[in-house]
Amino acid sequence: MSSTTEQLLRELHASLGQRKRPEDVAQLINDLLDATPGGLDRKTRRALDKATRNSLRRLWHGYTSMLEDFARPVGAQRQLARAAQLFDTVSALPAEAGDDPARVEAVIRAAGEEIRKEYGRSDFLADRLNRDERAGAGLGDISKRQYNKRFRLLRRMEAKLARILVEQRKRQITMIGKSGLASRLPYEEFAADPGTAAFVAYLTARANLRAEFTVQGQQRAYDEVADALFRRLDPAAANWFAIAQVHPTAEVLKQVDDERRGLLLGRWYRILLDVAEQMETLWRKQSVDRTTMIVERGQDSTSWNQAARAWTTARANWFALLEAMGAQSILERLCPGKVVLLVAADVAAWHRQSGGGLHPDTDVWAELPLPWHVLRGETECPQWLVEQVCRRHGVDPERRGWTRARRVVHAVPFRATPELVHGVSVADPMLASLLRSAGVFSGRPLRPAATDIR
After folding, report:
1. Can you give the pLDDT at residue 214?
2. Rounded to an integer, what distance in angstroms lies between the CA atom of residue 279 and that of residue 236?
3. Is a pLDDT exceeding 60 seen at residue 61?
4. Distance of CA 69 to CAs 15, 248, 385, 434, Å?
5. Rounded to whole angstroms, how far apart are CA atoms 111 and 153?
6. Which residues contact 275 (CB under 8 A, 6 or more apart)?
7. What is the DSSP string of 66-96?
8. 212 CB contacts (<8 Å, ≥6 apart)?
9. Would you say residue 404 has pLDDT above 60?
10. Mean pLDDT of the chain
11. Mean pLDDT over residues 112-118, rounded?
């Protein structure tokens, strides 16, 4: 492998955890496939040209105003630097250590031993040592003021660590909801075949597009460029296991052996359990009308919708794997329902003015048992019950994905990535940047995370 090819593969692999425009990823893919033996066939080149021409136009106009990454939690760099000043057992650490919960926890524990503070016991009244206790612990040479200063810092660091863990979990759930297990693909698995890497990177970039403020439905990830890259794959050389983690269709899964399908089945079920726990926590914190799912003031629609998308992705992929392994009988006994997104009141009103109404899945969701109760075995939700409720509300259970995985994926036409300000499309990235800095739309109840209702 040439150094140029490896560099391009590294850039494409890094894009799996980012939000780069598909046009920019397509340019990298074009360069990669041009550099591989055999080059590009005419059909794939034509498809890539549609995207790369748009990428070149964007470069000419300047840039995109949108962040090209998922929101990351603010690390504990400042707290670690302060700990290095106050504690003899803590040395200065590189900046990346502040983003690593394991390293932050290790510092908290080591520093806590220095002042005889037990990890997790941070009550300022109940857990501090008094003068006699400090003397008995060999801390008599530390003044009360200095001891309190160190105790407070460790208390803040434990709270900071808890926030980092929560935000990292939310970030992972967001990425799973967008592009499946793409961000978890090891480089070696991703780069084993350039054709596989090209398809996975492009489809992931399409899946990671931001939601638009619309009642027409969001862009579908699998477009004509993705289809051309998929059809170009060499069946003998393609890494079908890597592809199955972002595109688990029946056509792909039949190429994966039983052992690896079982591995994916277990991964997706664990994700279902994790996301269900997250949704239950969010559900208990706020009162939501299940019959409408319209956001009310004070409700955290963003976190709920991120978790709901992750549930939808994990559930669909789990269903697909069960069918590929001939284990559909499991769904006859355990068929957790879909989860509906919270929708902003202005979007719901827009739907009514356009002659529409609530999403057809809302009535079914409102009647079925809550997913976390089903997974814990507290409530039964067999396939026959889901079918019965769907038909009562005029919903096709198979076609709408309530009881089966999607059967066929059809490619949609390529569409250029829109420049968005709070979900609203803006013609020019420079104008978008100005509007964002001026706080335009900030007073309106636009909630991009709550508008993806189709």
Report:
1. 60
2. 41
3. no
4. 9, 25, 41, 20
5. 10
6. 173, 176, 307, 310, 311, 314
7. S-SB------SHHHHHHHHHH-TT-----GG
8. 218, 219, 418, 420, 423, 424, 425, 448, 451
9. yes
10. 86
11. 94
